[in-house]
Amino acid sequence: MSDTLHRWTVEQGGVRLDQHLSRALPELSRSSLQHLVESGCVRRNDEPALRKSLIVQTGDRIEVRVPPPPPSQVQPEPIPLEILFENEDVLVINKPAGLVVHPAAGHRTGTLVAAVLAHAPQIQTLGEVERPGIVHRLDKDTSGIILVAKNGDAQTFLQKAFERREVRKTYLALVDGAPPTPEGRIQAPVGRDPSHRQRMAIVPASRGRQAETVYHTLERLGEYTLLEVVPLTGRTHQIRVHLEFLGCPVVGDRVYGRRTPSLPVRRQLLHAARLELRLPNEGQPRLFTAPLPVDFQEALGRLRGAPLGNPAAQPDSDLPLNPVNPGRMNR
Question: Which residues have a catalytic role annotated?
C-alpha cells in the first residue's frame, strides 16, 4: 500500500500549522498530524515544515504525505453485534451502552472494534491502528447507531460526508429539568476543560472549536424532559456539554450532570436514535433507526406511570425528520 498525498493552497492564513492541518484533514487525529510534522511528512512551499507552531500564510502551498497505517494490533473478539444494515461498504450497528468503541487506557479489550474485526477482518488495515474503519464515535455509555466503513474508498467517502455535514444524527436525551425554551439552537465553542483535563467544557473561541446543537422538546415528564437533539458539529461530548450549559444535564451523566443520578440508572440516558446519510455508490439518502434500549424505556415508563413494557414507553421511531428544521419531527 502506497503513501497518500494531499496537496492544497492555503486560502486563509494567520494560524498555526497544526491548527490548519486539523481543519484541512479532520479524518486524522491531532497526535497523528503532529507525528507527520515531526517526521518530515509535511512540506510548505516545497520545504519541510518541522514545527507545529509555524504560522501558515495565505497562498502557502501545503503538501502532506500520509504513510499507510500498519495493521491493527487489536485482536478480534467474538462479541455479539446488533447489525441494522450491512453491504460491501458499511456496517450500521446498534451499539449497546457500556461498550467502548475503540481501545483506550483501561479498555484494551472488549471493544466494538474487536467485535467488528471478528465479523469483518478486512477492515484491519483501514484508518488509524486502533480504530480501523471507525468514522465517528459514541461515548461508552451512549447507546445507538454507529457507522463503520468496510473498505478504504468507503471510509474516505464517509469521512468527507461528515466533514461537509452531510450526515444527520438525531439523539434522544432524557434530561434533568428543562431547557429555557421548548426548542432552540446552542452555539458555544467546546474545548478541553483547563481545570479537569478529562472533561470538555464551554471555552472561549480562541481555545475551543465551534460547536452547534439543535434541540426540540418531545415531552415534559414532571421534573424531567425528553429531548430530540441534533448535533450540527461533531465535538467530543458535545451534546452532554451543551445540555449542561443549558442547565438541563442528561439524566445519569455523572461527569456533566449530577454525581448521584436523580433516577436509578447506571448510565447517561442518551441514545443515537437516527442516522440519515447517503451511502457510497448510492444516489438517495437512507434513514436508519435504532429502538430505545430497555433501561431508557423503563425510565420513561416509570416517569409516565406506565407498566414496564407498555408501548407508551417507546417514542415513535418511524417518524421522518423534517428537512426544513433538523430539530423537529413531522407530526
Answer: 139
